[in-house]
């Protein structure tokens, strides 16, 4: 039976967050941000192992105690210049670390910057895709009206939001397919894993998620993430 292995790319700098500390380490509900996604992934009974991919010069990781995740956690300092490079380097390191990991095992790539992922969303994704030919991702239908801007920031027109979805993570694909896809794309031109799969001519499946699993990107996102995490704790 194929296994489910999580990979968290966490080698970014969080430039849009405007903070010297890389955003995956910013304090959120009393823990570094990445702790929350790790907690959900490591506590899922489906997930066999969780790989965290850090920048080669990361000096923050070792400041914290990660021992509560020790049974599943593997840390690799092999992040690259882009998210796609970090994921591909991570997949190669994964194969070198554990020879039993098979090309048909499922890889769930999850952003360190999505701390509000729940076990429920994770189970929905795995249930929907475990028998899928291609794989897919959590996503939500676009809710807002979409405007196209000209170079003066004036509205050129209104775009139909019909059939448009916002991609989230985890994005779940088989190891062999994902490595093949990521090694063929221009890594600077894509911002998620599904794009690389699409470039092979395949159609990843969209699995309905919700807005709570948003990506913390700008400083004002921190307060919202904290509220969602507090609500989760009291449920
Ligand atoms: N990431 C990575 N390696 C990179 C760039 C990004 O592992 N070279 C990771 C980030 O650490 C994050 C995830 O990919 O967990 C999603 O990326 P994003 O939210 O864009 O984070 P950053 O690239 O760090 O932020 P920004 O784009 O604002 O600089
Ligand atoms: Mg980025």
TrEMBL record:
Site for Positions MEP for the nucleophilic attack, residues: 161, 215
Reaction(s) this enzyme catalyzes, per UniProt: 2-C-methyl-D-erythritol 4-phosphate + CTP + H(+) = 4-CDP-2-C-methyl-D-erythritol + diphosphate
PANTHER family: 2-C-METHYL-D-ERYTHRITOL 4-PHOSPHATE CYTIDYLYLTRANSFERASE, CHLOROPLASTIC
InterPro entries for this protein: IspD, IspD/TarI, IspD/TarI_cytidylyltransf_bact, ISPD_synthase_CS, Nucleotide-diphossugar_trans
Signal sequence bounds: none
Top-rank lineage group of the source organism: Bacteria
GO molecular function: 2-C-methyl-D-erythritol 4-phosphate cytidylyltransferase activity
EC id: 2.7.7.60
Alphabetical keyword list: Isoprene biosynthesis, Nucleotidyltransferase, Transferase
GO BP of this protein: isopentenyl diphosphate biosynthetic process, methylerythritol 4-phosphate pathway
Xref: PROSITE patterns: ISPD
Pathway in which the depicted protein is active: Isoprenoid biosynthesis; isopentenyl diphosphate biosynthesis via DXP pathway; isopentenyl diphosphate from 1-deoxy-D-xylulose 5-phosphate: step 2/6
Site (Transition state stabilizer): 16, 23
Enzyme category, top tier: transferase
Family stated for the protein in its record: Belongs to the IspD/TarI cytidylyltransferase family. IspD subfamily.
NCBIfam families cross-referenced by the UniProt entry: ispD
Protein name, per record: 2-C-methyl-D-erythritol 4-phosphate cytidylyltransferase
Its biological purpose: Catalyzes the formation of 4-diphosphocytidyl-2-C-methyl-D-erythritol from CTP and 2-C-methyl-D-erythritol 4-phosphate (MEP).
Lineage summary: Bacteria, Pseudomonadati, Pseudomonadota, Betaproteobacteria, Nitrosomonadales
């Amino acid at each position: 039976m194929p296994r489910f292995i999580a990979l968290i790319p966490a080698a970014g700098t969080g430039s849009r967050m405007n903070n010297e500390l890389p955003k995956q380490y910013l304090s959120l509900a009393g823990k570094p941000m990445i702790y929350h996604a790790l907690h959900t992934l490591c506590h899922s009974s489906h997930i066999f192992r969780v790989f965290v991919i850090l920048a080669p010069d990361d000096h923050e990781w070792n400041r914290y105690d990660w021992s509560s995740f020790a049974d599943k956690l593997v840390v690799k300092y092999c992040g690259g210049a882009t998210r796609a490079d970090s994921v591909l380097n991570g997949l190669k390191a994964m194969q070198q670390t554990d020879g039993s990991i098979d090309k048909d095992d499922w890889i769930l790539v999850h952003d360190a910057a999505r701390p509000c992922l729940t076990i429920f969303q994770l189970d929905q994704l795995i249930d929907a895709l475990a028998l899928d030919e291609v794989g897919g991702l959590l996503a939500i239908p676009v809710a807002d009206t979409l405007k196209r801007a000209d170079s003066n920031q004036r509205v050129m027109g209104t775009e139909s939001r019909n059939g448009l979805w916002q991609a989230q993570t985890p994005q779940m694909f088989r190891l062999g397919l994902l490595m093949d896809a990521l090694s063929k794309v221009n890594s600077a031109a894509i911002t998620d894993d599904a794009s690389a799969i699409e470039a092979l001519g395949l159609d990843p499946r969209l699995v309905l998620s919700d807005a709570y699993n948003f990506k913390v990107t700008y400083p004002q996102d921190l307060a919202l993430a904290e509220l969602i995490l507090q609500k989760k704790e009291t449920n």
